[in-house]
Amino acid sequence: MAYFDSASSLPLHPVARQALIAALDEGWADPARLHREGRRARLLLDAARETAAEAAGCRPDELAFTSSGTRAVHDGIAGALAGRRRAGRHLLVSAVEHSCVLQAAAAHTADGGTVEEIGVDRTGRVDAGRYAGALRADTALACLQSANHEVGTEQPVAEVAEACRAAGVPLLVDAAQSLAWGPVAGGWSLLTASAHKWGGPPGVGLLAVRKGVRCAPRGPADERESGRAPGFPNIPAVLAAAASLRAVRQEAEEEAARLRALVDRIRSRVPELVPDVEVVGDPARRLPHLVTFSCLYVDGEALLHGLDRRGFSVSSGSSCTASTLVPSHVLRAMGVLSEGNVRVSLPAGTAAEDIERFLAVLPETVAEVRGRLGAPLPGDEATAPAGAGRGAAGTASGAAPEEPAPDGPAPEGAGTDGAAAAEQSPKAPAAAGTEAEEPALTVDALGRRCPVPVIELAKVIGEVPDGRVVAVLADDEAARLDIPAWCAMRDQEYVGERPAERGSVYLVRRRA
Amino acid sequence: MAYFDSASSLPLHPVARQALIAALDEGWADPARLHREGRRARLLLDAARETAAEAAGCRPDELAFTSSGTRAVHDGIAGALAGRRRAGRHLLVSAVEHSCVLQAAAAHTADGGTVEEIGVDRTGRVDAGRYAGALRADTALACLQSANHEVGTEQPVAEVAEACRAAGVPLLVDAAQSLAWGPVAGGWSLLTASAHKWGGPPGVGLLAVRKGVRCAPRGPADERESGRAPGFPNIPAVLAAAASLRAVRQEAEEEAARLRALVDRIRSRVPELVPDVEVVGDPARRLPHLVTFSCLYVDGEALLHGLDRRGFSVSSGSSCTASTLVPSHVLRAMGVLSEGNVRVSLPAGTAAEDIERFLAVLPETVAEVRGRLGAPLPGDEATAPAGAGRGAAGTASGAAPEEPAPDGPAPEGAGTDGAAAAEQSPKAPAAAGTEAEEPALTVDALGRRCPVPVIELAKVIGEVPDGRVVAVLADDEAARLDIPAWCAMRDQEYVGERPAERGSVYLVRRRA
Q1: What is the ipTM of this complex?
Q2: HSE-up (13 A, CA, CB side) for residue B211
Q3: Does the N-terminal peptide bond of residue A201 adopt cis geometry, omega within 30 degrees of 0?
Q4: Residue in A closest to B78 by C-alpha
Q5: Residues of chain B positioned with their CB less than 8 A from the CB of A236
Q6: C-alpha B435: how far from chain center
Q7: What are phi and psi of A257, to 5 degrees?
Q8: Among the residues of A168-221, which ranges form H helices?
Q9: Does the structure show a pLDDT above 70 at A223?
Q10: pTM of the model
Q11: Measuring CA to CA, how many Å separate B286 from each of B76, B150, B153, B264?
Q12: How far, rounded to the nearest angstrom, does the alpha carbon of residue B114 sit from its chain's CA centroid?
C-alpha cells in the first residue's frame, strides 16, 4: 500500500498527534474566560500563534487561525476586497488558483465586482510581467498561489509581489501547497494556508494579514481572533497544527531533496514505460513532491481504480473522475491533455522502493484500461496511411466498442445508450466561415465520456484522405481540451470548434 | 478543584476522545477522493452524520457539519434570510439569544434588513403569544433558543414553532445549550448546535435544515456538505462529536435528575448563606445543570478570582468582567441585577460534595470582595433613618474608598483617577419634565465601574430626608440595570434616568 495523494491530505504527523492529544486535556476551555482553565487555554493559544507566525514569516498579531484553509481564502479575499472598496472592485487571479480562490472570485462577480484571470503557459506558470501588466488603478486585490496544487509548478510570487507593491495593490498568496517546504518569499500582504496539507489536523487554516493591510471582516463578527474568525477557537487542533508545521520545517530541506529525486525518476521513467503519456508542469521550478501526467486513451477514473487495486492511492484531474464532468481547470488553462490524468504527490518518508513498485505496475494498469476501452494500439492506429488501415477512406467505421461499466456510479448525463458512431459526411452539420470545407467524415460521440471521443477520432482519422477533415460531434467538456492535445501529440492539424445543436463539432485535418 | 463552567465548554468526553483518536488514523483523507483512504473517510463521515442526525431528530441528508456552532448560526440565519428574500426582510429574535445570533441579526440590519427583538420576563422567558403576535407577512425568519445559556430558562419552542408553522415562517432554534439533554420538541425548520458544549471536540457545529426549507448559501460555496459548509471536512472531530452526543444522551435522563437536585440546592442555599443575593432564571422550566445569581455590592471579576483561588471555576455576566464594559444582554433584557453575577454550570458527574464545598466558601468570598470595596454592611446601610446614619441629610459623603486594583488589565475607559464623590445639589444638572424636582444630593460616580455607583448610592441614601431624591451621575453601563435593581431589592423608589453631558443621571427617591 502506498498513499501518493499528500496534496489532498496527509495523515497526522506524529508531532501533531502528540500535541493534539496533550492539548485535549489542557486546551479545551474557553480562552476568553477568567478561570484557570481559561487562562491555560489562552496561554496555549498564544504559544501556538507564536510558533505558526514564525513559520509563516509574520508577527503573531498578524496571524489568525481559521477553521480551514478554504475559510482563510474566502475571508481573506472578501475582507481585502471590502477593505479596498474605495480603490475599486477589480480582482486579479491566476487561472490556475485553487478552486476555493476561484469560488471566492465568482462570489465577487456575483456581487457586481470584476474578476480578471491571468492565463498560464503550458507548464502552468504565470508570466510575472503579464501579471504586473494587468494591475490597474482600480485593482482592489491580486491573488497568486505560491505553487500549483495539481501540477506543482511554482509561481513567480516575489516578482509579482514587487509589482503589486509598486502599484499599491495588496497581494494575497495561497500558500496551501508550499508552506510545509518553507516560508513564502517576497512581500505578500495576505497569506493563507491549511494545516492538514502539512500533517496537521483538519479544521485549521491560517490567515496572515500584514499590519497596515486593510482587511475588513464580512458578515457577523465577534471578538475572537482579532475579529477575523468568529466562533469558539479549536485550541487542541491549532496547537497540533503549529507544532507539526515546525516539525516538518525541520525536516523540509533534506526531505525535499530526497522527494525531488524520486519525482525526477517518475518524470523520466513514465514516458519511457508507458506509450502516449504527457508529463505536465514545470520540470524544475516545482514543488519537490508532486508530479502529474496524462495518458492518452485512458479513462482517469478507471486508471485510479486500477492503481488503487494495486495498492496505490493517487488523484486525478480528469473530468471522468469528477462529479461535475468538467476536467481540471488547471489542465484546461495549461492547454494540456486531461484524459487519463494522474497526480502523484508523495508524503514525506516515501521510500524509493514504493516508486519502483509504482513504475512496475503503471504500464499494465494503463494497458488494461486502454484494452477495455478498445483504444488503438500504437502502430495499429488509424493515423497509419489511408487505405492501409482497417477501413477505406470515407467509409464509416463500425460502432464503437461498448464502454466499460464505470466502477463508481455513472455521473448524470453520461449516456450509456448511444455508442459513438462515425457517419458519412452528408449528415454532418454545414460548416461555416473559414471551416466551410465539408468534413470527409463525422464521428458522433454525443453522450460519450472522455476519453471515448478521442479514441473514436483516432480510429477513423486514417480512413479519410490526407488533407481532408474529420468532424467529431461531442458534448463531453474534456473533448475541447483533449482533441487539440491529441492533435499535437499525433501531429494532426486541429482546425477548430464550432457549436452544434447539442455539444460542439471539433474539426481535425488529417496529416499523413 | 471544581470546574463549574460547562456552559462555556467541556473537556472531551471519554467516548469522544476514543473516537477522535481512532479516527485520526482512519478518517484523515479527503472523502471526495476515489482511493481507499478517501472511501474509508467517506464511510466514517456518513456514519457520523447518521448518528448525529438521529440525536438531532432529523434525516441525515438534512444535517450539515459546520466548523462551529457560531458558524452554523451565522450560515443558517444568512441562508434562511436569503432563501426567504421574496417574503420580506423582517427577522424576529428573542432579546436573550446567544450573542452570535444577535451578531448575525446586526449584520442583517447593516445589510438593510429589519430586526425585531422580543423581550422576556424577569425569568428570561419569552412569552409565546407575544412572539407569535410579532410574526408579520414580511417576516423572513424567526429565531428562538431552546434554553438560555446564561440563566438556563427554557423557551416555549414548541408553541412558537406552531405559530411559525401557521404563519408560514421558518423557525431557527439555537439548541447549543440543550441538545445534550434531548432533542428539541416541536416543528423547527432549522436547528443549530455546538459539539464542545456536550463534550465533543471544538471545531464541530451542526446545521440541520428541514427538507423544503429554503436555505440559500451565502458567499463562496463548494460541493462539501450539500453546499452548506465549504472547505475540507474535519472527519475525526465530526465522528467524535457524534459519538459523544450519543453517549451523553444515554446518560442524560439520570444525570439531569441528579444535577437538577444539586442546582436546586444551590438555588435554595445561596440566598440563605449570602445576604443580598438575587437568584435569577426560571426555577422550574430550566436546564438541569445551570444556575445564575447576582450579589449586590460585588465586583464580578473580583468574585470570579476569589472563587478561582478557592478552586472553583465559574463565569460571569457582570460588565466588570467583560472587555466591552457592558453587562450581559441577557440580564439586561430580564431587568435583573448584573453586579457580582455568577453562572454555575455543572458538568455531568459533579459530586454533591463539590456543591457543599462551593456553598461553604461562597459567603467568605463574597464578604471579602464587599469588604475590599467598602460596601455597606447589612444593618449599617444608609437606608437606616435619616440623621441616624453617618452623616446628616444634605451633607456630602466623603470620598469613596479606593477601587481595588483589578486582577486583569484595566479595560479602556475605566478611569481610576477620580474617586466617586457625593456633591450637594446646586451643582447637579437641572431636572426636566416630570423629574423637575431638585435632587437633595448628587453622587458623582463618573469613571467608576460597577458596583461602585450602587455602593455610593447606598452609602448616601440615608442622608436625604424621606421623600427626597438622590441623583447618581454615572457612565458605567451597568448602572442603568443595577440602580433600578437595587431600588427593588431595597424598596426604594426608582424615579428614572436622564442624559447628562457625560454618562447619565439616575434618580432615586428615598423611602424610609
Answers
A1: 0.87
A2: 5
A3: no
A4: A219
A5: 201-202
A6: 33
A7: -65, -40
A8: none
A9: yes
A10: 0.88
A11: 25, 11, 4, 11
A12: 23
